[in-house]
Structures are given as C-alpha cells and as structure tokens.
C-alpha cells in the first residue's frame, strides 16, 4: 500500500511544534498522557490502513447513487467503517464524559481524522458530520434531546447532518424558505427543501438526524429570523419505536470528486407530517449553527491538507521509483536513466507540494490546539485563544483548499502522462480536493469574513494577537544564523499587511463597502502566505533546536534538516507571492464592482 501520510511528521507536530502535553496540565484533559495520546493515533492509523484506504479507489469507481425510491446506495464497506470508527470513539470521542464521550482534546481527535481524510477523505465526512451534529445538540439542546439522539449518533447507528442550503439560497441564508409552524412548545410542522446535504440519507445508517435551519411563522426577515431544528427521518415514539417523519430523499448529486460521499436533495413535509424539534431559543438558529460551521471550516481545511498530503506522498514514491532521462549536462547517451527525483524541476514540484501540505496540516493542528486551550482555560487567556481561533479560521479553511488544489495538480505533473490516467490515484486526489474550496462557504465568503469582520474584531485585537505569535517565532529564529533571513522576511510580511490595511481603511471609513471588499479574496491569499510562513518558521526553529541533541539517528537528523530546508524553500518560492497580492490591493484602479455588464461580452 502506498503511503498517504507521514506518522513521523504527526509525531513531530504533536509532541514538539504543537505540544499536546501542554493540555494535560488542564483539569479537562488531566486523565490523559503522552503515551496514551500516541496509542490512540496509532489505532486510528491501523483502522485507516485496514478499512478505509483499501476502498479509496473502489468508492470512486462505484459512487453513491440514488435508487429512484428515496434511497442512496453507498459502498458496501461504509457501514462496517462507520461502526468500527464509532467503537473506537472517533465520532463521540471529543465529547465530555457526561455526554458519553472520552473527553479527548480536539488536537488528538483532529490528528486521527487527518489520517482518515488522507486515507479516504469521502469516508471521514460521514464521521465528521455526525460528530458536529451531536456536539451542536449537546451545546444547545435539551436534556431530552441529548438523551434521545446523541448516543445513537455516537454509536454510528444514526447519521447526523447539517441542512442549510436551499435551491434558491446558497450562501445567502437570509433567503431560506423552509417554514416551521408551531404545534406545541417544542414541536413544529416543517415544510421545505434542502440541497447539497452531505451524508443526507443512505443505507449504511438506520436513521438520520438533520440539524436544519428554518423560519418560523412571523419571524423577522433576514438571518435574525432563522431557527434551528432537529428533524429526524424517523421520529422516536414514547414506546421506543420509530415513525416515518415525512423526510424524503428526492435525489442525489453526482460529482466530479468525493464520489463515494453521498450528497442529497431532501424534501420535508410533502405529506404535511414532518415534525421538527426546536433547538435552543427561537430566531437564534444561525448563531447556534456557526459552532458547527466554524468547526467544519477548520475540518475542511485539514481535509484539503490531508488529501494534498496523500497526493504528495504518492508523487514522492513515484519520483523515487520512475527512471527517466539523465542528469543535465550528461553527454553519454549510453548512461543509465536516473530516477526522476534527481531532476531539479521535479524537486521544485515536490518541495512545493511538501511546503503546502505540511504547512497546512500544521496550521490545522494549531487551530485544534487553540480550540482545546479555549475550552480548558479561563479569563483573559480564554479570550485570547478565542480571538486567535476566530482570525485563523477563514485562513485555515481557505489556504489548504486553494493551494491544496495547486499541490495536487503538481502531483499529477510529477507523474507526467500517467498522472492523468485512472491507473494512478493522484487524479482522484485532485478531483476530490476541489470541493474543499466550496464547502462551508466559498473562498469569497471566507475572504469577506476575514477582511470585513475578523481583522477589525475587538478593534483589531485578534490581528495583533496573531502578529504577536509571529513575533515569538521571529525572535527565536533571529538568534540563529540559519534562519535569520527567513525571520526578517516574515517580519516584512507583518509590515506589508499593516501597510495594505492602512491603504484600505480610508475606503471602509468612507462607507464604500463594495470597494473595500472587492479584493477581499486577494487579501485572504496574502494573509495565507504569511500564516503558513509562520508555521514553517515554527517547524524550522523547533527542528534547529532538536538538531542540537547528540543522540539523534541519521533518519532523525535528516528529518529535522528537511524541515529547515523546506522552510527556506517556502520563503524563497512562496512568500514572494504576497508582494504581488499587496500590489493588487493597493492599486486604486477599480476594475471589479462595475455596473456595465456589457464589458463581459
């Protein structure tokens, strides 16, 4: 079996770059230790090797499909995978003990899910959605709702989903038309449709718990009038039985990638018998849903990074084994061909892939750690972790999604013509990865969130906290001759971002929101380069420190030296793109937000 991730990298990230031991000093995670943490990661890898990776290709070749009678047929292995993952705690493991979980740090939980994503990213989506739906119920639902639904979701018997999008309303949730008519204090008759519902309804689970946004009768217009409902496919009865709840799967969507991952069209209340159960207070549904959406955004980013990593691992293996051509300058045509990894351009492509994939994984785990620290800490410290997580979320979702596609394209390029064929997996990685830039809000939505809200959060405090984190690594790197140049480049990026924002602020102050946000995606791209640069500097400084140990094996020494080399590569080849973004952002020509649409003809 070809490798799809690096366990050595994960151990380095978990125990050195984002030290999980830091969490065990908090009461919430005091029941764990380092050895237990790695045993769990090892068990996740075994599960991925045995159950998930073997059906990665066949799930693409025999995709989920609609049978015409309300059912979506999925790969036969899916039910076994969901059950096995549930038994090991990879659906409910991060929940607190009182809710039936193992109270695992998200850092451990997320690392395990990275392994699943790299092995077979379509399968992991079923697990991740259930985990997120259950967490939403435990946060905002009643005790009865928790008791009724959460244990069944954690066991893998019932599938959790999130149902937001409608045919006429994609990201514009203020335009949703699904209606809720009150019939008792907590029960409402639901009528409407939802589309693009991942894991919506399939035969691998017995029941489905759709966390659904709908508008009550008389609710205010816009997003402030949206409420959150639990809508099961089969509603539980008082006698313990189940009754069909008038939730019909009207079809599925056939996709270019993630073909084993069911994506459905749901119709609620065709026979006026669909009951939804209110979660929390009326008209606060979107606020509640953001808990699941923000967690999903980080998960989507990590998934993109994981798929990019899998593609890189295959491209690396291929480059080591594929003989073709001779060294530049070699004039002896009788000389044996060399493996393509010796060619400089192949090395450039491999290093680019490695820089993108590993930097993105590190950022995803950074966000997981911040999530844990936020939930475990108190006071000012807690607020700081929250603000850092807020500003990093759109970047952690978008950089891996956009640059991951580029990385997977380079994996195809590394294989040459073979990369374009279905005989090799990198074309599937490329197809699977594209959806990540669309899930949980497109790149444009993330960009507006970052520039329109997050950089101004708490009068810019979130951004300043992020710069303070940059400066910590810059200060460490400046002490070494090996990394002082990279430290200086990251310091320049802080100045560049400040300069760009100073140029943009007058536009926002004047109230020209359209102009201010017109190049928000370019700003997000620029921030992404800086944030991944910070992650690489963090990995490099830690590697430099570890290289001072006298008892390293040759493999360990090579691993740490490799991190320093890729850090330098990133700052030479990738960071310069940020300057081009800044040039666009500070150019006052207004070439978008135009009204003359004839210009597009």
């Amino acid at each position: 079996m070809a490798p799809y991730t690096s366990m050595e990298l994960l151990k380095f990230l978990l125990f050195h770059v984002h030290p999980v031991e830091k969490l065990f000093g908090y009461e919430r995670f005091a029941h764990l230790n380092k050895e237990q943490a790695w045993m769990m990661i090892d068990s996740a890898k075994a599960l991925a090797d045995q159950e998930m990776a073997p059906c990665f290709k066949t799930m693409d070749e025999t995709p989920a499909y609609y049978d015409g009678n309300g059912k979506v047929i999925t790969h036969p292995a899916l039910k076994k995978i969901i059950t096995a993952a549930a038994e090991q705690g990879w659906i409910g493991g991060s929940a607190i003990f009182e809710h039936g979980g193992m109270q695992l740090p998200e850092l451990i939980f997320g690392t395990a899910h990275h392994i699943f994503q790299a092995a077979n990213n379509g399968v992991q989506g079923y697990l991740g959605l259930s985990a997120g739906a259950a967490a939403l119920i435990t946060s905002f639902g009643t005790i009865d709702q928790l008791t009724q639904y959460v244990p069944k979701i954690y066991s893998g018997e019932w599938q959790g989903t999130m149902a937001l999008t409608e045919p006429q309303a994609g990201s514009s949730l203020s335009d949703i038309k699904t209606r809720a008519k009150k019939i008792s204090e907590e029960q409402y008759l639901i009528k409407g449709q939802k589309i693009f519902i991942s894991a919506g309804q399939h035969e691998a689970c017995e029941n489905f718990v759709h966390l659904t946004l709908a508008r009550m009768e008389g609710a205010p217009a816009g997003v402030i009038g949206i409420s959150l409902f639990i809508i099961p496919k089969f509603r539980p009865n008082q006698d313990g039985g189940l009754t069909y709840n008038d939730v019909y799967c009207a079809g599925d969507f056939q996709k270019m990638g993630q073909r084993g991952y069911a994506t459905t069209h749901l119709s609620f209340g065709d026979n006026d018998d669909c009951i939804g159960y209110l979660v929390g207070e009326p008209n606060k549904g979107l606020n509640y849903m953001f808990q699941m959406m923000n967690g999903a955004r980080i998960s989507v980013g990590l998934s993109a990074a994981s798929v990019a990593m899998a593609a890189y691992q295959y491209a690396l293996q291929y480059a080591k084994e594929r003989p073709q051509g001779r060294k530049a300058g070699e004039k002896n045509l009788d000389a044996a061909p060399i493996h393509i990894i010796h060619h400089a351009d192949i090395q450039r492509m491999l290093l680019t892939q490695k820089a993108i994939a590993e930097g993105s994984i590190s950022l995803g785990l950074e966000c997981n750690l911040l999530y844990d620290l936020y939930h475990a800490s108190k006071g000012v410290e807690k607020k700081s972790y929250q603000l850092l997580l807020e500003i990093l979320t759109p970047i952690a979702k978008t950089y891996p999604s956009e640059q991951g596609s580029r990385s997977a394209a380079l994996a195809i390029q590394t294989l040459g013509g073979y990369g374009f064929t279905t005989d090799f997996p990198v074309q599937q990685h490329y197809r699977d990865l594209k959806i990540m830039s669309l899930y949980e809000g497109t790149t444009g939505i993330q960009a507006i969130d970052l520039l329109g809200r997050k950089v101004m959060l708490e009068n810019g405090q979130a951004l300043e906290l992020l710069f303070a984190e940059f400066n910590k690594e810059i200060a460490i790197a400046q002490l070494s001759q090996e990394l002082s140049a990279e430290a200086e480049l990251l310091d320049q990026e802080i100045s560049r971002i400040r300069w760009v924002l100073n140029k943009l602020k007058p536009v926002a102050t004047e109230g020209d929101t359209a102009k201010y946000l017109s190049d928000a995606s370019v700003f997000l791209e620029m921030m992404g380069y800086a944030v991944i640069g910070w992650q690489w500097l963090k990995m490099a400084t830690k590697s430099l420190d570890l290289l001072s140990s006298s008892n390293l094996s040759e493999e360990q020494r090579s691993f740490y030296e490799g991190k320093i080399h890729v850090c330098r590569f990133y700052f030479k080849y990738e960071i310069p793109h940020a300057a081009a973004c800044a040039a666009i952002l500070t150019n006052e020509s207004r070439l978008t937000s135009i009204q003359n649409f004839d210009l597009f003809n």
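The radius of gyration is 25 Å. The chain has a mean pLDDT of 94.
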